[in-house]
């Protein structure tokens, strides 16, 4: 449970500086062991003329302080997965499945409770920091608004002081100046730091970061990733990070979920998945990356292109492009299979069932 | 902020000079021979030359322009041909009345336009939104002079609800209530076109802001729908200011028809009457002060814009 | 950095409107507008041959009501058939609105493209000059010019053209600047194409759609203004049949024959709405962004 709820936080001390906030610092209750459980998440966009299912049964568990990377090509449904967890699509999408946080299903919460979860327990860091800030409001006022809406601070003065501390926490050297600045007066990196300050302002248990560095300069990218890792370590927050950058995924560690056409096709510890992929798609993906020896443009890449939304074939979605495909692949869609402790892959061909580790299905139906 | 306003002021000066030049040129392009018409059939070449030099017409054009401009900036607009009196007081009186009508129409247009714009943007497929869209479409296409006439026919003359014309009832001796009564129909007529334009522009402004990323970001921070809408509307203010400023400016011209129809004693009516009398000094002075008012209005809008939007005041 | 997008097909470039122009359909309303505009043009062309002389009146049959036998729309104060005058007046009313827009389209596009393609000083000179015209309330400027030139339809056309050029030029300039910023213009320049050929081959085809859309809607406005100028006594002179003049003529009888003034007014409204809707429809069809308005 967040400390805000337990009321132990003092007026202006950010959680980062509180001793019990580190990993393993607080007494571990079952709820804290598994803050976020996503089960068979399905997102269908509905318009007047058609329905398109974009996320098609994604399941994973994110424990306290843990990191989960969603890796996949453009259009594979990573961002939609991340946003569906927070129900950010309103009435334009139907969302099925379960998103459990602390015993509650976020998909069933009434509006008012959902609002306190958003920003309070689950926070979002979007890709483009410029777009994430109201251009006409000072950074400080955007922070104090969130602090007061979530009941963290009740007076304007206290909220202002807290806002400046938060800005310092995210590595902004002159918080007083930045608090009175408008977004356009800051550099991209500073802006993203401000956005991160907003996201961590209410001590969230889960931080969802959707390609938090894509819109930034290369030099700033590393700094922001370092800040995120640092905050995660200090605050004990679980991080769900969307990226299409294998380098980022490798550096950040934690677990990786590889998405293809709205599904998780492989899951496991980052180092294992990247060094020994067990799904033909992941293999193709990693083989096609440029390395110092192989020049760009001369890569072995996966033939064909991913299916468009709503054009998913029967059977394995990767079958049309899969070098290992066999006849049965075109018949039924393989679920995510448990192939080793903590590892899953949705390909029975590359991972034939063995007597001991028999085809125990993953949690995806 | 002050520096920004100063810069805007400095930019207004060349524009005003340009405006005066355009008006001066319209005087010069008038076909016909003003001297001949002043002299009448009895004019001799000598008397002609004398008159020309007295009026300064024998000097080069730039000199004439400077002379004309130096009179104009001190408020000397010449003498009315038809009324044989000073143009300045006549035009300034009329300007005051026009500004009253314009202000009333502007308020109406902004209220209506914003209301319809919001409605059509947020309740896109409702019946009310359809009606709103239809209203916006028709009102921007409407010839104001005939709408004014229809209002006179049915509400003023027919139902007797409002006075037919003028600004005050001579027997009532004036007063705010009387002015208000006289104001309603012309203001409503004048407001139609700008209301439609503001509605359509504001609709796209709202849709544009609502589709921006920060709206989702605000939702993701747990703000209530009302708070998010407050941010959204705050962000539509700059475009509203721009559109409304332009439309109120255009009202200064559009009221000509309305004033002519409702006999509202403003610049428009003055100009209209002067057209039939070919009283050019009055027409030019009327256009000049309207343009001046327009430029001042733009300055005001720019200043407000700078207040609302930190990005423009750099 | 090693990124997955290296294997994925490159993302389509941000919608530029140049390389990718989605095909869209016109709405039903816009199709109706096409028909109405077609009808108006047909009446303007052949109408005068179908009805009687608009200037022949029988004063014993003054102010006949709408629906009178032989006079569907009644007669005016001089006993002239209103329908005939309306039909014959279509040609002049349409031309008085259309011709200024044509002038403005050509001149405005030329000025806007020149400003957009020339250097800082050329750009500044042209745009600042246009700003001067923006400083006038548009209608009033038209009235002043028309009043200075004297009444007559050609003078009203000149006056309207003057006030319509600046907004068209702005549209063309904005579009030109947008194109100049795109890479492919750079490519054209690098390949040695001359300025004139770039303007004609690269810029004009892209500037044309928004200008056409904008000008179509301007026709509606221009028809209203042109009729307005005649209403004020600055357009055609009596006894010519023209809608604005008819409105002002019929105004004398608003107490005895209130419908009379509404008939030409309605004609103006219908024509103006039709062109406005057509403009909206064209915008959807050509996928031009933005609101169409002066
Ligand atoms: N609001 C929406 N309405 C309808 N379809 C949507 C919406 N948002 C996303 N989609 C579709 O869902 C699919 C997945 O999109 P998503 O944004 O999740 O991709 P992604 O994996 O995040 O890719 P990228 O790396 O490009 O961000 C895309 O085909 C997209 O067109
Ligand atoms: S199931 Fe078949 S098609 Fe799908 S990834 Fe495995 S081998 Fe390829
Ligand atoms: Mg994405």
Explained architecture:
- The complex is a heterotrimer of chains A (365), B (314) and C (294).
- Helix content of chain A is 29%, strand content 21%.
- With 365 residues, chain A is of the alpha/beta class.
- The radius of gyration of chain A is 21 Å and the shape is globular.
- Chain B has 314 residues and is mainly α.
- The mean pLDDT of chain B is 82.
- Chain C is an all-alpha fold and 294 residues long.
- Chain C has one domain (26-49, 72-286): MetI-like (MetI-like fold).
- Chain C has helices spanning 28-50, 82-117, 120-134, 138-149, 153-181, 183-190, 195-231, 243-251, 258-286.
- Classes of the chains: A alpha/beta (365), B mainly alpha (314), C mainly alpha (294).
- Chains in contact: A-B, A-C, B-C.
- Chains B and C meet through helix 1, helix 6, helix 7, helix 8 and helix 10 of B and helix 3, helix 4, helix 7, helix 8 and helix 9 of C.
Condensed summary:
The complex is a heterotrimer of chains A (365), B (314) and C (294). Chain A is of the alpha/beta class. Chain A is built from 12 helices and 12 strands.
What is this structure's SSE topology?
The complex is a heterotrimer of chains A (365), B (314) and C (294).
Chain A: H1 3-6, H2 30-33, E1 36-46, E2 51-62, E3 67-72, H3 78-85, E4 93-101, E5 104-105, H4 111-117, E6 122-125, H5 139-149, H6 156-169, H7 175-179, H8 188-200, E7 206-210, H9 218-235, E8 238-243, H10 246-252, E9 255-260, E10 263-269, H11 270-275, H12 280-287, E11 337-340, E12 343-345
Parallel strand pairs in A: 3-8, 3-9, 6-7, 7-8
Antiparallel strand pairs in A: 1-2, 1-4, 4-5, 9-10, 10-12, 11-12
Chain B: H1 2-28, H2 34-39, H3 45-54, H4 61-73, H5 87-122, H6 127-141, H7 144-158, H8 176-210, H9 213-220, H10 225-262, H11 267-276, H12 280-308
Chain C: H1 28-50, H2 82-117, H3 120-134, H4 138-149, H5 153-181, H6 183-190, H7 195-231, H8 243-251, H9 258-286
Helix pairs in contact in C: 1-2, 1-9, 2-3, 2-5, 2-7, 2-9, 3-5, 4-5, 5-7, 7-8, 7-9, 8-9
Bound molecules: adenosine-5'-triphosphate, iron/sulfur cluster and magnesium ion.
